[in-house]
Design a protein that fits this description.
Length: 140
């Protein structure tokens, strides 16, 4: 299903950031996060377009008897970083990282080494494999 969603998003000029399939208060939510490859943000109309295209596909491909909700949105200014491409696109932004050992690091993401899957925050080189959680943040 992920590949189908990714293809549809890309065919319409966007980039698939992430997909969530979660159960909240006994309701199933599919959240599809998209980004524009050249602009910093996506519009409500962009999200509505992708939702309108994906909705009938979900009705056919998602074969379960429970009701679900499909949401398409931008991942936002403060977004979770999971995949290597998330870190790559976030170079220059402020991030909060929790390491597997519980240590917390906060600062500007200075660099992402794609070859070795390592990031640089405050001149500290951190392998992605040692990161438990990571998120961008915005200082107001």
């Amino acid at each position: 299903m992920r590949e189908i969603i990714k293809q549809i998003v890309e065919d319409n000029g966007f980039v698939l950031y992430d997909i969530e399939n979660v159960l909240e208060n006994d309701h199933r939510f599919f959240r599809v996060y998209i980004q524009h490859p050249k602009k910093k943000s996506v519009t409500l109309d962009d999200c509505a377009l992708i939702n309108q295209i994906l909705s009938p596909i979900f009705d056919v491909e998602y074969n379960v008897d429970e009701q679900y909700f499909l949401e398409v949105s931008s991942p936002g200014v403060e977004r979770v970083l999971k995949e290597p491409h998330h870190f790559e696109k976030s170079v220059g932004e402020l991030v909060r990282v929790t390491l597997n050992d519980g240590q917390k690091i906060k600062g500007k993401l200075q660099d992402f080494d794609k070859e070795n899957n390592k990031i640089n925050i405050k001149n500290k080189i951190i392998p992605l494999s040692s990161i438990k959680k990571a998120k961008t943040y915005f200082e107001w």
